[in-house]
From TrEMBL:
PROSITE patterns: 4FE4S_FER_1. This is 3-chloro-4-hydroxyphenylacetate reductive dehalogenase.
């Protein structure tokens, strides 16, 4: 039995449930939230502001979407989701302009908002300040209010265990829609108690959410790159609401996850793309396991959105309390090495149990990089070099057309939804 360093007490999953106590063994204690260097976070935010990969990696986004759409069921799921989700995203974008319907009483409404969020089905809710350092360059004037309500909606257990699968893709999309509708209700509730509320929709997001969820005490960053929440691990979808309501802030928590991931490593070992890093590095002022995007996107594009790193995470499957109790009792990672936790089937490749990984052809991970016009220029240079530096009229015309296509593409999430064949 390991010595327990501290215990974390969290509210139950639903309103009225008993609180949940999570033991954190002393050897897993690091810092509340995530190790960070504030000066570096400030510096990167100022000198190298973040931008959405929908813009910076547009070329591979279009490439991956085209591959995914060759799978008939995946294409139908996407079209259905886009059709149903679009009104929710458009409604979310209007919420910031909605005036409150009454005068506020002036009291602290944090608990009222949290209770309402739980009633609407959110399993995790926490409040902190909106951290503008994590805002995308293209959205820097978008967020109107200083406080942020961080919300996590559970994704159904059973279909998630079948990842990668059509069932899992369906539940992944539908969870986004369910939480989108619930967030609209929560925003209307905040208006009804006297305050503004602006939904930051995951389809139209202003930046990475996880730093603010960690600051609000809703979990810690896993080696898989997902937020690991105490009640459902990575098996949830995130959404945020910024507000001017009179609220008090929650605090970051050390759940032991930062150190536990270095012991566990199940997602790192099981990733078919070898896209997850074993060791942590310092990146933009945070200490984290960094994902190799170039090894992840080609897998996601071809294998039903992949998500194996979510499926094989013991915290997703068994819950943080069970995982920590088991580790404290035995020094072992619950489920590690079992087919139940680690096994998965990849369409067209078969089943892979613990210790087994698929092999891909040479060139599998080649994909376009950067935005459309940047990728056009890279290709132009390569073809001109191959032709001994001769730039033919045809080469020039192809380049001109690709650059024109890139420049005509929308940089706005809603604008992207309007583009040809979006639905
Ligand atoms: S989605 Fe798949 S390929 Fe990407 S990191 Fe997770 S397991 Fe690896
Ligand atoms: S599988 Fe293990 S290493 Fe990966 S995120 Fe989950 S707990 Fe961390």
């Amino acid at each position: 039995m390991l010595k327990i360093g501290h215990e974390v007490v969290r509210p139950g999953r639903h309103r009225g449930d008993e609180p949940v106590t999570i033991p954190v063994p002393e050897e897993l204690e690091t810092v509340p939230g995530i190790p960070l260097n504030q000066r570096e976070v400030d510096w990167y935010a100022r000198e190298y502001p973040l931008e959405t990969m929908n813009i910076t990696e547009r070329a591979s986004r279009d490439w991956a979407n085209a591959i995914r759409d060759t799978h008939i069921e995946m294409r139908e799921i996407r079209k259905e989701h886009d059709k149903l989700n679009r009104p929710l995203v458009m409604a979310a974008r209007l919420t910031g302009d909605q005036d409150p319907t009454v005068e506020p009483t002036g009291g602290d409404v944090s608990q009222d908002i949290k209770d309402k969020a739980k009633d609407l089905g959110f399993l995790e809710v926490g409040i902190t300040y909106y951290d503008y350092r994590y805002t995308y360059q293209s959205k820097k004037d978008y967020v109107k209010f200083p406080h942020v309500i961080c919300l996590a909606y559970e994704q159904d257990f059973e279909p998630t265990q079948t990842i990668p699968s059509i069932d899992a893709e369906i539940v992944h999309s539908s969870t986004y829609r369910t939480e989108g509708a619930a967030a609209l209700e929560l925003a209307a509730y905040i208006n009804s108690i006297g305050y503004h509320a602006q939904i930051q929709s995951p389809t139209d997001n202003t930046g990475p959410y996880i730093p603010m969820f960690v600051e609000a005490g809703l979990g810690q960053l896993g080696a898989c790159g997902y937020l690991l929440t105490p009640s459902e691990g990575s098996r949830c979808r995130l959404i945020m609401i910024t507000t001017d309501a009179n609220v008090s802030y929650d605090k970051p928590v050390d759940y032991g996850i930062h150190a536990f991931c270095q012991v566990c490593q199940v997602c790192v070992n099981r990733c078919p793309g070898r896209a997850l890093m074993r060791d942590k590095i310092w990146w933009r002022g945070l200490e984290k396991n960094k994902l190799y995007f170039k090894r992840c996107r080609p897998i996601m594009a071809r294998y039903l959105g992949c998500g194996i790193c979510m499926k094989v995470c013991p915290i997703q499957k068994y819950g943080l309390k069970n995982v920590m109790e088991h580790y404290a009792d035995t020094g072992q990672v619950l489920g590690k090495g079992t087919h139940d936790l680690e096994g998965y089937t990849i369409e067209g490749k078969g089943y892979f149990g613990p210790g087994e990984l698929p092999v891909f052809d040479r060139g599998f991970f080649d994909m376009p990089q950067g935005d459309t016009e940047g990728w056009a220029f890279d290709n132009f240079k390569k073809q001109a070099a191959a032709a001994g530096g001769v730039i033919s009229d045809e080469l020039m015309e192809n380049f001109r057309q690709e650059v024109a296509r890139g420049l005509s593409q929308s940089r706005d999430d809603l604008g992207m939804m309007e583009e040809e064949d979006y639905i």
